Amino acid sequence: MLSFLRRTLGRRSMRKHAERERLREAQRAATHIPAAGDAKSIITCRVSLLDGTDVSVDLPKKAKGQELFDQIMYHLDLIESDYFGLRFMDSAQVAHWLDGTKSIKKQVKIGSPYCLHLRVKFYSSEPNNLREELTRYLFVLQLKQDILSGKLECPFDTAVQLAAYNLQAELGDYDLAEHSPELVSEFRFVPIQTEEMELAIFEKWKEYRPKITRLDFKKNKLTLVVVEDDDQGKEQEHTFVFRLDHPKACKHLWKCAVEHHAFFRLRGPVQKSSHRSGFIRLGSRFRYSGKTEYQTTKTNKARRSTSFERRPSKRYSRRTLQMKASTTKPEDLG
């Protein structure tokens, strides 16, 4: 009788301990997706996402890999899910992809909680085939991780350009009054990031500033006016003139340029109006009437949500530069 009571109470104690551990693990994750049932019938999986956050998912004890994968895809509202997979490490630290047709417990031997990572499993052979902005964003996060970890080797010039694109996307246009070369050292892009590379990234970032203010044509001459900031932060206007063989060819080139500008730069097509438009009017009544890239990404397919959170990159302590960068402080402009 005493032996029976000890076994019974021991099992109850173990179940309570498992339940406490499961709840404690769920609380450590940023998001917890619960499941019905007690600790004995449930397993907990902790999935690290590409933005650095964690999701804790409770599932039936005999759940297969596909059930966990579907939960994560639903949580992210990720439509183009075929490019992604869940990866785990075995006891020998060898990475494996979770098989959707097999039990989670039979594949991931260490747990519960069973720790997995959401990763890009298949890189698109043509990035333009990725229709969803969220998918493209996750691809960028994966590439950043692979380059930073050294898994993906990147030549110096390519790394500088990609890092400059990252700064442009995260911080916007370079601002002389706000941004200094030391700012780049707060980010990590490659395993060995030297001061020389940071200065090169800074200089490349400064180049991503020109804005088209005028585009028109007359007969066989097309005029393009671009404004950008110089090294002192003052706007400089550059005019480019293209002469074509025939007025029809000139008008055709102008229409193509207007369409590309409207598609990539505007949130919606320019509405017709009685007054002249500084950019679109310009020698013709032609207006781009199709959807813009912004509209396409927002209305491409019905979704439960229309936006997702972009998380900033991890920031590090700022470097004190020993090399000089070609920049001028605002107080030196006077």
UniProtKB/TrEMBL annotation:
Stated membrane topology is: Peripheral membrane protein
Q: Where is the signal peptide?
A: none
Instruction: List keywords of the entry alphabetically.
Output: Cell junction, Cell membrane, Cytoplasm, Membrane
Give any Pfam family that matches. Answer: FA
Name its GO BP terms in alphabetical order.
Answer: actomyosin structure organization
In terms of PROSITE patterns, this protein maps to:
FERM_1, FERM_3
Region annotated Disordered, chain positions: 293-334
**Annotated Polar residues bias:** 319-328
**Protein's cellular compartments:** Cell junction, Adherens junction; Cell membrane; Cytoplasm; Photoreceptor inner segment
Where does the FERM domain start and stop, copy by copy? 43-334
Gene Ontology cellular component?
A: adherens junction; cytoplasm; cytoskeleton; photoreceptor inner segment; plasma membrane
Q: Which InterPro entries match?
A: Band_41_domain, Ez/rad/moesin-like, FA, FERM_2, FERM_central, FERM_CS, FERM_domain, FERM_N
The coiled-coil segments of this chain are: none
CDD domains noted in UniProt: FERM_B-lobe (cd14473), FERM_F1_EPB41L5 (cd17205)
Chief place of localization: other
Q: Listed GO molecular functions?
A: cytoskeletal protein binding
Q: Which domain of life is it from?
A: Eukaryota
Q: Sorted alphabetically, which SUPFAM superfamilies does this protein's record hold?
A: PH domain-like, Second domain of FERM, Ubiquitin-like
- Sum up the protein's function in the record's words: Plays a role in the formation and organization of tight junctions during the establishment of polarity in epithelial cells.
- Self-association state and partner proteins as the record states: Component of a complex composed of PALS1, CRB1 and EPB41L5. Within the complex, interacts (via FERM domain) with PALS1 (via HOOK domain) and with CRB1 (via intracellular domain). Interacts with CRB2 (via intracellular domain). Interacts with CRB3 (via intracellular domain).
Q: What is this protein called?
A: Band 4.1-like protein 5
